[in-house]
Amino acid sequence: MKLMGLDGVGLGFRRELIPALKTHVPDGIDFFEIAPENWIDLGGAPGRDLRAFTERYPFVCHGLSLSIGSPAPLDEALLHKIRQFLDQHRILFYTEHLSYCSDDGHLYDLLPIPFTGEAVKYVAARVRRAQDILERRIALENASFYLRAPIAELSEADFIRAVLTEADCDLHLDVNNVYVNSINHAYDPVEFIRAMPTERIVYMHMAGHYKETENLIIDTHGADVIDPVWALLDQTYGIHGVAPTLLERDFNIPPLNELMREVQRISLIQNRHADATHARAAS
Known about the structure:
Layout: E1 9-12, H1 18-23, E2 31-34, H2 44-54, E3 59-62, H3 76-88, E4 94-97, E5 100-102, E6 106-111, H4 117-134, E7 138-141, H5 156-167, E8 170-174, H6 175-184, H7 189-195, E9 201-206, E10 210-213, E11 216-218, H8 227-240, E12 245-247, H9 256-282
Parallel strand pairs: 1-2, 1-12, 2-3, 3-4, 4-7, 7-8, 8-9, 9-12
Antiparallel strand pairs: 5-6, 10-11
């Protein structure tokens, strides 16, 4: 499955990159992604800059603070603001993390939801409500986490599949997060990828991380993608087919021409798989 009107390779739309992008958007960037919380109600020059790009290029919104698994009530006021923002910029698609980051207040980390049947029903009901308010189908991203929730009746993969089915929503597959969790929690990343439902994958992420120790990786989006994650993307396309894929870089952002090397590497992997698919179809 592909997102309507979205294909190829994307790049996070960061304010640090705007001057270079205003001069020239390199060939190879097919779409951009923004966190709506960083742009809602923003006027002035930054708001005008965003409008100039959303009028010319496809955008996706990837939320930061909906906290879909939180014990606190769903933030419907935020959802209404997000819907207005999506409508204003004609952005069709919105994704969020399958995790939570709030209770009485917002936290700095994404926390894992207990992998239980009760949590599946709870989260799915909140997703369905969010979709009703947004008037859009959404996708949930598999999140990186560092401590397991104290209760786990299901594996992480089974929990994700159950939520997607119960909520009838899509999957935003973050390949780097799979790799990070596979190191931190000692599982096979390829088997995890294989367990994801192909028919619900609409969008993918690639990113770098920080290696704290041999057994602990921190998902920073602040470094280059490493070779094992590139290999995992290649295997992911082989298992599920090619989907729109975005390079995340949120910190230590290099010049645009350096980021383009990784954007182009994603494109090369996509093209190789597309060529192989066409060759099989023609034989």
